[in-house]
Write a structure and sequence with these properties.
Length: about 270
């Protein structure tokens, strides 16, 4: 869910991310991983953007992965093979603080190959630049801030100043989801307007993803089963039970029971809540 939310932000606010990552507001368009000649590795986590001169390859991570350096080298070679005349800018963005040395790894090295890429650890980044661009606002709470709650409050005020209601709803929803990595859902619910979130493309995508996942796992054999899987996905993203109930049609009592079951290790929610 965090992958999808970050993808949504990059693809809908590419100039904001280009300004942050490249230092200039380059117009970028989405490049599908399927356009590479070889089947991509973990295409679900890859974000590719392009202009006439540059390819931007991003990967957002909530935890470290010992295959990341290899993946970056692998994608670089694939991209270079298809776009040899373009500059390739690769960045891994870690969202959640970690002491793992893998979060500091910026190259893949063998006896014959040395490939370098960029790494950004959000918790080390100053907050102010993220408050200057609409597309970066949802990430501000994860930056180097002494008080995440106060930062979210400031972000909420900036979101309220967005005139385009569609943009406002999408940024609000993305902020609510990503802020769940740093804050309790009660704080998020108090500071962000839930009625605005409901209109967002991000939330609609969550609903669709939950339904698809439920079917894939054999849990969506009826409306109740599908709603349970959707609700579980939302709870895992730190949405409040009241909001989950409103979006799924389940009662708050059912949501609370599902939440209680989900926190028990190895126990899945039952279909007849």
């Amino acid at each position: 869910m965090y992958d999808n939310t970050c993808k949504f932000l990059v693809e809908n606010f590419p100039t904001d991310f280009a300004t942050w990552l490249l230092g200039k507001p380059i117009a970028l368009t989405k490049l599908e991983p399927s356009e590479l000649s070889v089947d991509p590795i973990r295409a679900d986590s890859v974000i590719l953007l392009e202009s006439s001169e540059v390819i931007v390859h991003l990967e957002f991570q909530t935890k470290t992965d010992d295959t990341m350096a290899y993946r970056m080298a692998n994608y670089y070679l694939r991209l270079y093979g298809k776009y040899p005349a373009k500059e390739i800018h690769q960045t891994v963005i870690y969202l959640r603080p970690t002491k793992s040395t893998l979060a500091y790894q910026t190259n893949f090295t063998t006896n014959k190959l040395n490939h370098e890429f960029n790494v950004i650890r959000l918790w080390e980044q100053p907050t102010e630049p993220f408050q200057q661009y609409q597309g970066l606002l949802p990430l501000a709470v994860l930056t180097k801030t002494g008080n995440p709650s106060e930062t979210l409050q400031e972000v909420a005020k900036l979101i309220d100043n967005i005139e385009d209601r569609k943009v406002k709803s999408n940024v609000t929803a993305a902020t609510a989801i990503i802020s769940g990595l740093a804050l309790d859902h009660e704080v998020i619910q108090r500071l962000l307007r839930s009625e605005i979130m409901e209109e967002s493309v991000v939330y609609q995508e969550i609903l669709r993803e939950g339904l698809t996942k439920g079917k894939a796992e054999g849990l969506a054999k009826g409306k109740v089963e599908a709603a349970n899987q959707i609700a579980l996905n939302m709870l895992r993203s730190n949405m409040s039970p009241d909001l989950v109930a409103q979006l799924t049609g389940l009662t708050v009592k059912q949501i609370l029971k599902l939440q209680k079951l989900s926190i028990k290790k190895g126990q899945k929610p039952k279909a007849n809540l």
